[in-house]
Amino acid sequence: MNKAGRRSLLPYIPGYDNNAILKLVFFIAGAYIMLAISWAVGMIVNLSADKFNEFFLPNIGLPQLALFPAKWWTLFVYGIFHFPNSFMEMLSNMLWLYMFGSVLQSLVGKKQIWAVFYYSTLLGGLFYLAAQLLPGGMGHCPPLIMGPRAGIVGMAAATVTIAPKYRFYLSDTFSIPIMAVAAVFLVLMIVGTGMWLPVGAMLAGGALMGFVYIKLLQAGYRPAQWVYSLYDTMEKMVTPGAAARNKIRPNTQPANKESRVDELLDKINQKGYKSLSKEERDFLSDAGK
User: Fold this and answer.
1) Distance between CA atoms of 6 and 64, rounded to whole angstroms?
2) Which pLDDT value is given to residue 53?
3) Which domain range does residue 94 map to?
4) DSSP string, 37-63
5) What is the CATH number of the domain that holds 8?
6) What is the model's pLDDT at position 271?
């Protein structure tokens, strides 16, 4: 993608319906708000913080390996929640998630976002559990692990894998390479592990999944095709057929240059930048100058 193409995409924020990364951010932020409200209600009814942590958090946070068989479902939910008193951590995580996710969405389409995040979260959780079997792993492990760090690292790894030369253009003459942003992010994530081996392994698992996911896409595979097929089947059950949609929304030509740009940017967010023809890429490049 050329520089003009990148500049033309950065200011563009898709509408909510076509913005999978924004939906993911809102979903995780909403989960934090729900948990924080539950914690506040517990304090109001004189439920101590220790009791809340003892009876509620172990059902959503990933526990130590010895307790995992009785709490196996936590592998699928731990990456959605933050601890109730960690607002600044949640805010920071959502900013990183949106930064990397918005770039990835513009390059591979909206359908890949949730899959990359969730697969990275799952593999990160498995690495976290497996690392506790290593010498010293169990002794250097927090009682519970929560938060989307593995998913965010996976998103970052996927983004730099598919576009290592991508740059954030803050002006016409000043830009920041995504590799530099990713390096700062990685340092902060490593520092945030507290040098716990299992937590570091969790981040490594998330990064590995992000890398592998993109390599599979580039090789022509669709790692989350089963999710797309299920979603499409459900969508067909509740939406009109193609003929009915055409009657409701006739296929008209763009009235002007601006609507043409919007149409092409929508196409990028739905199918990825590579879905554009050479004529469409040249048009976007000229429009961004």
Assistant:
1) 44
2) 75
3) 3-229
4) HHHHHHHHTT--HHHHHHHTGGGTSEE
5) 1.20.1540.10
6) 61
